[in-house]
């Protein structure tokens, strides 16, 4: 056991001084600090107004041609935002001249067909925002109801969810009110954990792959194996670089907590931004288990490859598997509990990232979390057992990459 800790300490000491590790560890907190300083410089309200102006369609100037006769009485609240034109030629000329961002033509049979044609300049993005995000819809609704229904009914038709209150129930059935920033705890925290997981896992695992490859290429491994067993060497490297990853995560989490506290103080968000203890705990569990799995696989890839470049190509297979959940975000948005996403939550190579992403999209059944963690632990146990044998077989093979028969023979050996 003493040899394992010696190897772990050496790996930690060598890699913690690497410029790549130091830069990556400090870069993310530095970017967060810069963002906070910029936000505090402009002030919370100004920042909110900026994002509202950039990402909401209200800043657009839209023209329209009314062939239905339903918009004869322009409402004053839309003055400047919607400009009427007598015909389509005038609206088209205004669009080309840059006087408006887009325009729409209301068909003569609009009441019967609901047909509206929207035009934009060069790209359909502006028009798509106007249609999808709700610029044109409220405008038409307001005009259709004006003078025909009670003003209160008209106001509610325009903003039916003006004072909506979201009530959630915990596992004991107790009700709690959600606030406007509850999505930070519900979505951003698991999402951020998944990003940090991928960065940290492959930073630490990449150092492990590099270490094994360099020692094998330089034949330093022969000297090491004369005084320590291959299983002890593998365990020491995994332990040392696991500590490296935990240091990196601790710096990020500590900096993140400090920045969140500063943001809450600056912008009066105290009590609104909360951290879910269960989510944080699951994030730590999946990080530790995921690291053990990928570190073992990276070490095996380093032992199998004849050169560092070849080892990186082998390790790329595992990296691709870990990135699969990010490639299936469309499935998550559509249905976080679809059979396909659940299956990826159970598969050890994709389970850490996929489960963290699913936690950000809503409640995940406790049974699925338990099965996922159990299968991940079994996968780690198998990878450690098989990895130690392959690691031992591949370390002393130079100039020749072990074939499938060699790997199977190594697994059969005691």
What does this structure look like?
The protein is mainly alpha-helical. The protein has two domains: 2-34 and 181-412, no CATH class; 55-158, D-Maltodextrin-Binding Protein, domain 2 (3-Layer(aba) Sandwich), CATH 3.40.190. It is built from 18 helices and six strands. The strands form two sheets. A four-stranded mixed beta sheet has the order 2-1-3-4, sandwiched between helices. The model is unreliable at 44-58 and 269-274 (pLDDT under 50).
User: Could you say which structural class the secondary elements and strand pairing correspond to?
Assistant: mainly alpha
State the helix count. Answer: 18
What is the string of SSEs from the N terminus onward? HHHEEHEHEHHHEEHHHHHHHHHH
**What is the mean predicted local confidence, pLDDT?**
74
Helix content: 55-70%
Largest beta sheet, briefly?
Answer: 4 strands, mixed
What topology does this entry show?
Layout: H1 2-16, H2 19-42, H3 44-55, E1 62-66, E2 82-84, H4 88-96, E3 102-106, H5 110-113, E4 116-120, H6 125-132, H7 136-145, H8 151-158, E5 167-169, E6 175-177, H9 182-217, H10 220-225, H11 230-266, H12 277-304, H13 308-327, H14 329-334, H15 339-346, H16 351-359, H17 366-395, H18 404-412
Parallel strand pairs: 1-2, 1-3
Antiparallel strand pairs: 3-4, 5-6
Helix pairs in contact: 1-11, 2-11, 7-8, 9-11, 9-12, 9-13, 9-16, 11-12, 12-13, 12-16, 12-17, 13-16, 15-16, 17-18
